[in-house]
Amino acid sequence: MENLAGNSSPPRSRWRKVAYGGMQPGYDDNHTDESFLEGMVMNASVVKRDMLKVMLDSVSISEYLCIVALVVLVWTYTLGSTLDENSLLFIDASLLVSESTVKAPGVMKNPALTSCISVNASVVASVFIASRLPSRLHVFAIMLFSLQVFLFAPLVTYCIKKYSFRLHLCFSISLMAMTLSFVYMLHRLLFVLLLSLLVFVNIVCPYWLIKIQEYKFEINGPWDEAKLCFDITD
Q: Which residue windows are transmembrane per the record (predicted)?
């Protein structure tokens, strides 16, 4: 009896759920017990979005689409000799005056307000258009106009939105109405396409986003990676 008692193995210690604790004696490295799924949480961080809020946020996208459409309209009228160099220079001067009055809060803290890729693409497109113009003054005017719009328009819209969201909505709606009216005078089919695009961006896409949220299924539990509760940059 004494030999049997001496040869018996010590009782196995209870498994503990510890992070970076290494292998525990008597248990496999991937061992889990019945308490593993007790900490499982479903859809804990899923954000329930409001349809109106998403539609209002999508106005900014339509704003940029209208800005691009207006630039294309100016290019089209210039190539068609509807706008001369004096008219373009007048538009450039008006834009320069309006942009010089805008003070952007936090620009130095966030210098990447515009994407370098989009700016480079717009400059390349402007150069291609300018190569079709008859005079150097035309080229200077269209290049200055394109640079002013593509460089400063995002900054101006950003400042307006930071200053007042209501003013941002009024500005965006006015911009969309003006763009649609100019496109309508140019071509009816282009007007229908632009109007359909704006409806798709402002109504259809937000509706799809809200509907897709119903099928979102998120699982969180003890298997998730640890999150720091302090800032490592301090």
A: 61-80, 137-160, 167-184, 190-210
What is the C-alpha to C-alpha distance for residues 76 and 81, in angstroms, rounded to an integer?
A: 9
C-beta atoms surrounding 19 within 10 Å:
7
pLDDT digits over 136-173, tens only?
888 888 888 888 787 778 788 888 888 888 888 999 99
Per-residue tokens: 205: 């896409």
What range does the domain containing 133 cover?
Answer: 51-99+113-211
Number of domains in the chain: 1
- The Cβ of residue 152 has, within 10 Å, a number of other Cβ atoms equal to 19
Mapped onto helix, strand or coil, the DSSP state of residue 220 is strand
Contact (Cβ atoms closer than 8 angstroms) between residue 125 and residue 61: no
Q: Judging by beta carbons within 10 Å of its beta carbon (0-12, 13-18, 19+), is residue 194 exposed, middle or buried? A: buried
pTM for this predicted structure? 0.64
Does 3 fall in a domain?
A: no
